[in-house]
Design brief:
Blueprint: H1 3-33, H2 37-45, H3 49-62, H4 67-90, H5 96-124, H6 130-159, H7 163-179, H8 198-211, H9 213-233, H10 236-244, H11 248-275, H12 278-298, H13 302-330, H14 336-365, H15 369-385, H16 388-393
């Protein structure tokens, strides 16, 4: 897929490793500073606030400026903020208030970096290869961010509270250095008009999505399926304890099982996309999600739940790669940032809404109830969009 893609992938691996280190080290640092549940929850929530407040704005910026420079600048800001964090920890001046501010600042910079980065891939990969391109990028997230990074982060935290954040900064600096090797076509300057008000750019992006029926429907599907996914998985640890009787080690194995399924999908994705029609593949993935919710609602056997989670990890990885490729193929280069930001905002908002609903449902109706809610909601949605998936799969023809 070309030299630019290889440099981009290498940069992604370095950045995802750094972010994965923070996945474990961040909560450990928060827990060392406060035992207040509200503040602990705030530390988790503050990382999503930039997307809610600035997600659409970041998408418009990504369509106005050179996306390569945007990604580099945002990552260097992240490195600078992490350097401040390391110094404050090392000198004993860290506080929960300061940490919340750091997390917010890092979240803002990460939002702009990721928005620009997602708009870069369609510029350096041919449309026909976007599926496998997304799959390889997602493999970096799966392995470096979800598997290797957290283990490294926890180990480094044991050496010293500042150590993992220093290593994270070094990994992001390496990611930025690797990304300087990526060469983009001339259209990288963006398609939005600098003389036009940024609000108008955002409105234009929303209007484009609204008038493009397949992408509009795909965005709604992503939003609804993240509500139904977020509901049970937001209380997964509670369900695992109450229904399966698992402790901390068992819960760790349960969550790792999905990563195993994802790794299998990394190896098989190219073949799947070549031999299975896109619409059929989309229907299979969404159908498996509906069935997964039903199966997890019914089971009380740990090894059965782990087997289901392997299946979940496999189809979720395929769906993520495939749905991103479908959106990128259909979206003109000058709208990639804005359309991608709406897509991502829908994902995050859906997830947060689902987690809230899941907590309420579980507290009133029991640990398995969120899975029943997810089964019903995703099943009804799938029935409603079943015929349209054939059109969505080939949205670039519109």
């Amino acid at each position: 897929m070309g030299t630019a893609f290889r440099w981009n992938l290498a940069s992604s691996w370095a950045g995802q490793l750094g972010d994965g280190i923070a996945v474990a080290a961040g909560p450990l640092l928060v827990a060392s500073l406060t035992r207040n549940p509200t503040l602990i929850a705030a530390a988790a929530m503050v990382q999503h606030v930039p997307t809610l407040l600035l997600g659409l704005y970041a998408g418009a910026i990504a369509d106005r400026v050179d996306r390569r420079r945007l990604v580099l600048a945002a990552n260097l800001v992240r490195v600078a903020v992490l350097a401040v964090l390391v110094v404050t920890i090392a000198t004993g001046h860290i506080s929960i208030g300061l940490l919340l501010g750091v997390l917010f600042a890092v979240g803002v910079a990460e939002l702009f970096a990721d928005t620009g980065w997602r708009a870069v891939l369609p510029m350096i990969v041919p449309k026909a290869d976007l599926g496998i391109g997304n799959a390889r990028q997602m493999s970096a997230f799966l392995v470096a961010n979800q598997m290797v990074g957290p283990a490294v982060g926890a180990s480094l935290f044991a050496l010293g509270q500042a150590v993992p954040f220093g290593v994270q900064g070094a990994a992001l600096l390496l990611a930025a250095a690797l990304f300087t090797k990526v060469r983009l076509p001339a259209s990288a300057a963006g398609g939005a008009k600098p003389e036009q008000h940024i609000g108008r750019d955002i409105t234009d992006g929303l209007r484009w999505i609204w008038h493009h029926a397949p992408i509009r429907t795909l965005t709604l599907v992503i939003f609804i399926f993240n509500i139904t996914w977020g509901a049970p998985f937001g209380v997964l640890v509670y369900w695992a304890q109450e229904r399966l009787g698992l402790g901390s080690v068992g819960f760790g194995l349960l969550t790792t099982a999905s990563a195993v399924g994802g790794i299998v999908s990394v190896l098989l994705y190219d073949r799947l996309e070549r031999i299975v029609p896109l619409a059929r593949l989309m229907r299979i993935c969404l159908s498996l999600e509906v069935v997964t919710h039903l199966a997890l609602a019914l089971t009380t056997i740990p090894w059965v739940a782990m087997a289901i989670m392997v299946v979940f990890g496999g189809y979720a990885f395929v769906w993520g790669s495939l749905s991103s490729a479908v959106r990128q193929r259909a979206t003109p280069d000058e709208y990639q940032g804005r359309v991608g930001s709406v897509y991502w905002l829908g994902l995050i908002v859906g997830l947060l809404v689902g987690q809230f609903l899941g907590g309420q449902i579980a507290s009133h109706f029991g640990a398995a109830a969120p899975f029943w809610f997810a089964f019903a909601g995703s099943g009804i949605t799938l029935v409603l969009v079943w015929r349209q998936l054939a059109h969505i799969a080939h949205a670039e023809a519109d």
